């Protein structure tokens, strides 16, 4: 956050830093601002005081602790690149969640995923059944329920494909949900509808307002 009443803009963050905290300029004074406010009256009397205040202000900026800047500009408390998390059930691996970037904020129970998200699903015997991919998403810390956003594609091992703008995965119920429009592409045709619910392997599913287009 910018310090209210500051005459100088906040310095831009370093483009390549990871997890960096940006130190902001605090309130400062300058002879030019004093001239504009006083229209030049008594400038020669004010110049020494203004110069001293300017030096003190700069000194305060140099000594400003990183923790204070972190409070003013809130960033993630945790950040990881090339993040991965395994989800098990009864000791058996049921899913692996990967993301290009993982971010956790304060007391939030939901973590942010972006820079490419992938979820690999497995059946009760540990065999891979399908893969979900999306640009971004969010995952709950405790039960690992997940929301995928930004154009989601689920591809099953038999090449069946599910497409939607957003999908939810419930780890406990082992179901994928889609509230909006969805499209299923199979070898024998294409089906579209809304209100989708399916197992991760796309073998058992239900959908409302289904429109089917058969292929030869």
TrEMBL record:
Residues 1-20 are annotated as: Disordered. GO terms for cellular component: plasma membrane. It holds the Pfam family LptC. It comes from the Bacteria. InterPro entries: LipoPS_assembly_LptC-rel, LptC. GO terms for molecular function: lipopolysaccharide transmembrane transporter activity. This is LPS export ABC transporter periplasmic protein LptC. It comes from Handelsmanbacteria sp. (strain RIFCSPLOWO2_12_FULL_64_10). The lineage of its organism: Bacteria, Candidatus Handelsmaniibacteriota.
């Amino acid at each position: 956050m910018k310090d209210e009443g500051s005459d100088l803009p906040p310095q831009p963050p370093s483009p390549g830093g990871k997890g960096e905290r940006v130190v902001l300029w605090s309130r400062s004074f300058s002879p030019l601002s004093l001239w504009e406010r006083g229209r030049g009256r008594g400038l020669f009397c004010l110049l020494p005081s203004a110069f001293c205040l300017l030096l003190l202000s700069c000194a305060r900026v140099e000594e400003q602790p990183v923790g204070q800047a972190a409070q003013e500009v809130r960033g993630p408390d945790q950040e990881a690149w090339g993040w991965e998390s395994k989800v098990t059930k009864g000791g058996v691996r049921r899913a692996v969640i990967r993301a290009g970037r993982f971010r956790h904020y304060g007391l939030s129970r939901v973590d942010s995923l972006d820079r490419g998200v992938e979820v690999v699903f497995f059946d009760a015997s540990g065999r891979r059944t399908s893969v979900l991919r999306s640009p971004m998403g969010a995952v709950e810390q405790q039960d690992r329920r997940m929301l995928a956003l930004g154009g989601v594609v689920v591809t099953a091992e038999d090449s069946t494909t599910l497409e939607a703008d957003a999908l939810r995965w419930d780890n406990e119920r082992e179901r994928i949900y889609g509230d909006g429009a969805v499209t299923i592409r199979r070898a024998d045709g294409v089906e579209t509808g809304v209100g989708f619910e399916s197992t991760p392997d796309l073998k058992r599913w239900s959908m409302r307002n289904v429109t089917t287009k058969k292929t030869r």
